[in-house]
Amino acid sequence: MEILIVEDEREIAQIIQECLEAEGFCCRVCYDGYSALRVFAEQQPDLIILDLRLPGMDGLEVCTQIRQKPVTNDPYILMLTSRGEEIDRIIGLSTGADDYYVKPFSPRELVARVRALLRRRLREGGHSELLHTKSFTINLEQHIASRHLDSESPKHLDLSTSEFKLLTIFVKHPGRVWERGQLIEKLWGDDFFGEERVIDTHIARLRKKIEPHPNKPRFIKTVVGVGYKFEDS
Ligand code: CA
Questions:
Q1: How many angstroms does the Cα of residue 50 sit away from the middle of ligand 1?
Q2: Gap from CA of 191 to ligand 1 centroid (Å)
Q3: What is the distance between the alpha carbons of residues 74 and 27, in angstroms, rounded to a whole number?
Q4: pLDDT by residue (tens digit) across 21-76?
Q5: Neighbours of ion ligand 1 (CB under 5 A)
Q6: Residue 185 has what DSSP assignment?
């Protein structure tokens, strides 16, 4: 597997290179967009780790140009970004990036992300089947959810189907306040017939599995008089 790292901050580029090479990947590093396009034309790497902020041509432009090139193997593109609002740009412009990663990063998590991307076989028109927040990754295709807190190694979450769905709903809309009825409709559709408070039981179970301290929830917050919201920042 060949990986092209495009990052103008040399120290970061070196850290990424070292941790990926330690995992057996073959890496090449470029420090700007123009040389990245040149190397891409010669080598056609399997995956490109592309910093958003590059001198001259920025990461989005590089991404767009790569996606326009007729190649036999479309590479996976993992965008590196440093700020929250840039994520909206990456997603909003639908540049063709497969995934993004917010710096500062943990090398271990980056390697995990790279592995996940390379394992991915199906692609749905460039639409990512991976959902991320700072502390959670959900792989919709493989039905796998994991938690990665700074203080621990990534933890696989053993969730039931409705817990997985519930977490997915939250992760897709961080900060949004949900009424119980809205969550129920998302989970079970119009067929649900019963007491709205049933959702509380599911929330409690999910909290036990994803919260470091379920009694003092850090991620799934109760909004008094309304319902719940998910926060991860
Ligand atoms: Ca940069």
A1: 9
A2: 50
A3: 17
A4: 888 788 999 999 999 999 998 888 889 999 988 999 999 889 988 888 776 667 88
A5: 8, 51, 53
A6: H
In the chain the domains, ranked by start, together with CATH numbers, are 2-123 (3.40.50.2300), 130-230 (1.10.10.10)
Q: pTM value?
A: 0.52
Q: Residue 1, CB half-sphere, CA atoms under 13 Å: how many? A: 17
Q: Is-contact 210 223, C-beta < 8 A?
A: no
The torsion region of residue 175 among left (phi > 0), alpha (psi -120 to 50) and beta comes to left
Q: How far is the CA of 220 from the centre of ligand 1 (A)?
A: 33
Q: Cβ distance 20 to 26 under 8 Å?
A: no
Dist. CA 51 → ligand 1 center (Å): 6
Ligand 1 center to residue 153 CA distance, Å?
A: 27
